Amino acid sequence: MFNDLRLALRQLRLTPGFTAVVAFVLALGIGVNVATFGAIDALFFRAPAGVRAPEALRRLNVTMPPVPGQQIFFNINHSLADVAALRAHRDTYAQVGAYAEGTAVLAAGDAAADPSSEPPKSQVTLADRAYFDALGVRPMLGRLFTASEDSAFDAAPVMVATRAYWEHALGGDRAALGHTVRVNGRPFTLIGVLPDGFRGVELTPADVFLPIGMASAIGYQSTFVRKPAFKWLFAVARLAPGVDDRHAAAVGTTVLRAQDAASPGGDGAFDRAQRKRGVSATPRHQH
After folding, report:
1. Domain count of the chain?
2. 245, 186 in Cβ contact below 8 A?
3. Which domain-ending residue is among 170, 198, 225?
4. Are 100 and 214 in contact (CB under 8 A)?
5. pLDDT tens figures, 165-182
């Protein structure tokens, strides 16, 4: 065996080009396997860090019945009014949280970002207080958003950072609470730091969280986000005890169709006579 190993090493030294190709292919294969295992682990085996009793959580996905010869090339989600209507059914959904995703240029400190350069964008999640309550997430430092900060459109420039962002951009300094972080040039006050490992419930990890009412900071128009026709929010729910996925979906479907019937005309994105929204209650890993 040792003779074979010495022979193989001698052959590799004599053909450095071939050796380099072999090393590259091996490194690439190992890297792909590690990345694939990490994604599968995050998708199927491990709940997001800091989440309480994840088995009771469901993503309330909006479904649309197919229409022959027609396709929709964008997502239909929930409006603010939809989320409020879902929350009224406490016997089905113990808690319903709303969130949306986007990107922004973040600049820690009081100085604005250099406009002459193109700094990298960070992942931002807009969330309401009920989002954290439904997940059971509590801050490591400071506090989370209040209900009034959720509903104060363009009037509550506060933010919560992930521990990863707090350590990377703010040096892990506890005194950073109350300091300024600029989001696309707008000053926000850091009020809390989330527990280690929690970066949201999507595969794309968030760096910071802003109140839903500050949606304009990452490009949403505040005049539109409050309209019932603007379906821009994802919803995550903690099911009430004894409620199964089928019942949760049936109640959600009834709620959304009542919402659509109460606001005929909608956003013009689809024909309500043919496409009626429904809800599926989906575990995170299945989503």
Report:
1. 2
2. no
3. 225
4. no
5. 999 999 999 999 999 999
Domain check: are 132 and 217 in the same one?
Answer: yes
In a domain, 286, yes or no: no
In the numeric block, the tokens 């990863």 are attached to 164
CA–CA distance, 189 with 131 (Å, rounded to integer): 20
How deeply is 194 buried, as exposed, middle or buried, from its count of CB atoms within 10 A (0-12, 13-18, 19+)?
buried
Residue with tokens 């009430």: 240
The CA distance from 197 to 74, in Å, is 31
For residues 35 and 65, membership in a common domain is answered with no
Cα separation of 147 and 162, whole Å? 20
Helix/strand/coil for 42: helix
Residue 243 lies in a domain: no
pLDDT surpassing 70 at residue 204: yes
Summarised one tens digit per residue, pLDDT across range 82-101 is: 999 999 999 999 999 999 99
- Are residues 127 and 23 part of one domain? no
Conformation bin of residue 144: beta by default, left when phi > 0, alpha when psi is -120 to 50: beta
Same domain, 62 and 25: no
Query: Using CA atoms, how far apart are residues 18 and 23, in angstroms rounded to an integer?
Result: 9
